[in-house]
Amino acid sequence: MTRLTRKPKTPQQTAQQTRTLAALEAAIPQCQACVRLREHCQTVAQTKVRRFASDEYWGKPVSGFGDPAARVLIVGLAPAAHGANRTGRVFTGDRSGDFLYAALYRAGLASQPDSVSRDDGLILYGAYVSAAARCAPPDNRPTPDELATCRPFLRAELSLLPKLRVVIALGAIGHQAVELALRDVAQPGDPRVPKFAHGQRSLLTLDPTRSLWLLDCYHVSQQNTFTGRLTPKMLDDVLRQAKVLAQLDAA
Asked: How confident is the model over 60-71, as pLDDT tens digits?
């Protein structure tokens, strides 16, 4: 007798059928939608690099991470090949994550200033961290089609974070991913979101009782942080503004 093989769910199907944030976090690593990305992540996990030769790589899509009651969502680009693709937690185990989580700690949104592994005890307070793409892409560049395929996961997070008030988009790709994900849930007639600009903020109405702020910030990539394009103070200022808009200090 021929045994039928169940076809993996698409991100769209997963997003539509998932009812809780925990269920979404469990489902994302099972995604097989983008062949190029899955092959790349697995190849990196097998070949590794010398400094992490003894590590067991995650090598799968990476879920978001943080507080289910988050008022602030931070959206980056994609897992780093030897960062989140190794550790299995977004912005964990690389220099970009070092920069981001140190700032979250200074802002009172994280329990510790660093993030090195999934079991290092890090807790986020009022914040959730995610990405436009969930697999590490070659050359850190997901294609437009890959970003579109992954977008339902971000859209689901927006729906499954009921207390969300502010989204911080890290970089132009993060900005565009948030804009496109919000377009399906925003009120008809909302003005088009302006192009990415560091420090810019835009207000979108999701329903008659709920609005959401979109804040732009340069990405925490080494290219930006090593050159001074994004400084700790600049990121601190964005997080401070996000806390005010989200009314976190009053929560």
From this structure: 999 999 999 999
Backbone Cα Rg of the chain: 18
Spatial separation of the C-alpha atoms in residues 204 and 97, rounded to whole Å? 28
Query: Using an 8 Å Cβ cutoff, are 150 and 11 in contact?
Result: yes
Please tell me whether the overall predicted TM-score, pTM, comes out greater than 0.90 for this model: yes
What is the rounded CA–CA span in Å between residue 117 and residue 174?
24
In contact, 143 and 5? CB cutoff 8 Å: no
| Tokens read off for 110 | 């994280």
The whole-angstrom separation of Cα 110 and Cα 121 is 10
The DSSP string of the chain is -PPPPPPPPPHHHHHHH--SHHHHHHHGGG----HHHHHHHHHHHHH--GGGTTS----S----EE-TT-SEEEEES---TTTHHHHSSTT-SSHHHHHHHHHHHHTTSBSSS---STTS---BSSEEEEES-SSPPGGG---HHHHHHHHHHHHHHHHH-TT--EEEEEHHHHHHHHHHHHHTTSPTTPPPPPPP-TT-EEEEEEETTEEEEEEEE----HHHHTTTSS-HHHHHHHHHHHHHHHTTTT-
pLDDT, greater one: 171 or 249: 171
- Among all chains, which residue has been given the structure tokens 């979108």? 204
Q: Which residue has the higher pLDDT, 15 or 173?
A: 173
Q: How far apart are CA 133 and CA 11, in angstroms?
A: 11
Tokens 């340069």 map to which residue?
A: 218
